[in-house]
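step 3/5: co-fold with FE2/S2 (inorganic) cluster
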Amino acid sequence: MAKITIDGIETEVPDGTTILNAARQIGGAIVPPAMCYYTSLQQSGGKCRVCLVRVAQASARDPRPLPKLVASCSTPVQDGMIVENITSPDVLEARKGVVEFLLINHPLDCPICDQAGECDLQDLSYAHGLATTRYEEERRTFEPIDIGDKIKLHMTRCILCYRCTYVADQLTDERRHGVLNRGDRAEIGTYIQKAIDNDFSGNMIDVCPVGALTDRTFRFKSRVWFTRPLDAHRNCEKCCGKVVLWTKGEEVLRVTARKDKYGEVHEFICNECRFEHKNLSDWVVEGPRHIDRHSVISQNHYEKINLVALKKEIERQIQFQKGRTNGNNPNALTA
Ligand code: SF4
Ligand code: FES
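step 4/5: write tokens
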């Protein structure tokens, strides 16, 4: 086991754990963001650099800081390591720079993008992005293409995280797509149009952190926050059959795998569950999907209303407003 301190919080993790996973064990705001790392996909990580952290002390044996910021998703912990994430101004500055780079070619088309509301890059830009762009050169653009009859590729939105290629490599029988070319010519390419006729290819949509790969059966049907997500399952011979149904009334608009709080799927689902069972009666509905209340998707979705707590909160706010109007110290009223 190794003892590690992240942003002043100490934890103990098995040797070989990465800094990112150690931070996830602690949880909360100190967890670095991740756009390319994906727990269930081998070799993922180390591409996007949004998870950079500062190692203020390399280990108990060697208390010197590491000279450069490191990618937390691919750096293993050492006993006695001290790591700074949100407590380091250098890290926050570097993350800002990485976000600016990621947005150089990525279009700001959130109002028409199906990923809006559940896009990691959108969240990251709100947290670390600039309000304006300094980029004056021509952005690279691509025509959207259909890959198979169920998936749309908008290469212009791709951040080259490689997750979809790992899905193709590790989950489907025959990989037919990957990253072609290098530098600013690099693109997710082909024989992709021919490909993706495989039982597990739909998982590429779920792992894509941006709107580069979207579900053609769901596109433009609804903004995701207008849907009602439900946990449901069915007996499936090909996969675990555990999904989230994104519904509107009785209609099932979309079926996805279940993601954890870091946006990762641990049990991938087959294309039959994803695309061929769009009737509520095909599923055993377990109940509302828990959505983090900070997500826009949680708007207007109440799993359970605690009326007593709600009443108390309203009374507290009324009291707070009265205190402000009377010129009292409002903080005294929150006690
Ligand atoms: S298409 Fe999506 S998942 Fe694939 S490399 Fe691009 S951003 Fe990543
Ligand atoms: S998540 Fe670590 S480099 Fe992308």
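step 5/5: annotate
Residues 307-325 form the longest helix (19 residues).
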